């Protein structure tokens, strides 16, 4: 992972430049400062939180001393290499000029965990302004030794936070919840927390604007991550403008590139999934699935993996430079997830080698991580084929756009009771619509049709198909 170099100390003042935490990213949005001018900080202490095009991460300080100046504001988009903070190490002198780094500069100190030393880290909670608002105590964090050449820029963790001290006035909330509150125009100080230890939850924020109930009934039951509600609208204005940045900016660029680079073809298939729904109910009763969520999406994923095993050419990518089709002998299964930060497509590594319980656990981990806003860049890289579950939004079908670098994407529509001819008689059955988009440079109509047919066959009779195809 590339890391921007930090400037050497000038007169005892160290400059910390925004590093590249995502393999070639050029900018990031500064979400939250955990420190302010005058604060004493230590090496490895988390000083701010940023949002890149791929993930929300925390940055640790490679320096110890007194915070001299914050050179970027919360909500500001900062270029990689720009100085964002200066720290006085106590040796005296004046602050250096804040300027972007040059590629030729030599970095004097590594980021936390980058070299030989591994130490404890601290995250200082952001202080709420006010003359009588004392700071909440820092939440201790312990970092594990990082391998050589690996920066210890860590994904945002949501550790249980202590209840705020009386009169502190600082609401406790996870970073994604703070962002949701900001998007909805909700002051967290006015929200009544219902989470453990007085933590404000998403449901608390939504309840504050009348968008969702508070309590167990507000728990999400969808099989993929639910999108955030629309921000509060000023009805007196004729229009409003929303900055395009972070994940949404990255997604927009990727989708435009995909749509105008790969020739898309989409095929549709209606499938009787009555037996799949019965299989889901039986699997939920098995002890080896007790700790995971068993949903129709799990069996759709398994059906896709079986189809890929029978037709490996669909699990491929186009190498423009070498004019080659690269067929992958592994499946990193992506699942599109609509989150408060925009659309993300994390993937389950080597999903084709997993048992059904392992696949269920992988899907649970993937969706839980996305809901918490903690999907890492590594989780979103290296995908080979993708599923998007549009059915959770009450949609029957669509024409999904390929995830860049992949040859196919499967859309899974809602499951509805419909009249269906079954064994020569008209009956009410559980029916869904599958949509398969594929890159026509790699996948011709015959191959695409066979893949979609096999997925449908596996869902019509999952038990028999599993016995026949393994």
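Q: What amino acid sequence fits the structure above?
A:
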């Amino acid at each position: 992972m590339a890391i921007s170099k930090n400037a050497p100390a000038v007169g005892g003042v160290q400059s910390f430049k925004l590093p590249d935490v995502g393999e070639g990213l050029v900018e990031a949005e500064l979400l939250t400062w955990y420190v302010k001018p005058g604060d004493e900080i230590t090496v490895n202490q988390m000083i701010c939180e940023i949002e890149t095009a791929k993930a929300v991460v925390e940055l640790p300080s490679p320096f110890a001393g007194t915070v001299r100046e914050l050179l970027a504001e919360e909500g500001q988009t900062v270029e990689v290499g720009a100085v964002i903070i200066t720290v006085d190490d106590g040796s005296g002198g004046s602050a250096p000029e804040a300027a972007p780094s040059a590629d030729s500069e030599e970095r004097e100190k590594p980021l936390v965990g980058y070299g030989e030393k591994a130490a404890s880290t601290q995250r200082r909670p952001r202080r709420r302004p006010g003359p009588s608002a004392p700071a909440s105590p820092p939440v201790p964090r312990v970092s594990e030794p990082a391998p050589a050449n690996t920066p210890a820029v860590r994904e945002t963790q949501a550790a249980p936070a202590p209840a705020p001290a009386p009169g502190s006035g600082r609401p406790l909330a996870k970073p994604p919840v703070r962002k949701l509150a900001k998007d909805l125009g909700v002051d967290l100080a006015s929200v009544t927390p219902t989470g453990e230890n007085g933590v404000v939850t998403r449901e608390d924020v939504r309840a504050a604007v009348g968008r969702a109930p508070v309590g167990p009934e507000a728990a999400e039951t969808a099989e993929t991550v639910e999108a955030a509600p629309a921000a509060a609208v000023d009805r007196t204005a004729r229009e409003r403008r929303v900055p395009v940045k972070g994940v949404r900016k990255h997604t927009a660029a990727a989708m435009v590139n995909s749509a105008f680079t790969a020739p898309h073809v989409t095929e549709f298939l209606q499938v009787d999934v009555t037996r799949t729904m019965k299989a889901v109910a039986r699997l939920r009763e098995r002890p080896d699935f007790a700790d995971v969520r068993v949903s129709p999406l799990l069996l759709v994923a398994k059906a896709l993996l079986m189809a890929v095993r029978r037709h490996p050419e669909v699990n491929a990518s186009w190498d423009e430079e070498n004019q080659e089709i690269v067929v992958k002998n592994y499946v990193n299964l992506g699942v599109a997830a609509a989150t408060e930060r925009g659309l993300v497509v994390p993937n389950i590594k080597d999903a084709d080698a997993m048992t059904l319980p392992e696949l269920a656990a992988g899907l649970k981990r993937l969706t839980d991580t996305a809901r918490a806003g903690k999907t890492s860049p590594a989780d979103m890289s290296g995908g080979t084929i993708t599923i998007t579950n549009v059915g959770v939004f009450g949609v029957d079908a669509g024409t999904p756009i390929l995830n860049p670098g992949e040859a196919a994407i499967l859309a899974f529509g809602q499951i509805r009771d419909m009249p269906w001819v079954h064994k020569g008689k008209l009956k009410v059955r559980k029916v869904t619509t599958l949509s398969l988009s594929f890159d026509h440079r790699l996948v011709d109509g015959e191959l695409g049709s066979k893949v979609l047919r096999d997925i449908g066959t596996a869902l019509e009779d999952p038990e028999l198909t599993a016995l026949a195809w393994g």
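Q: And what stands out in the fold?
A: Helices lie at 175-184, 202-208, 246-261, 274-283, 296-310, 356-371, 445-460, 462-469.
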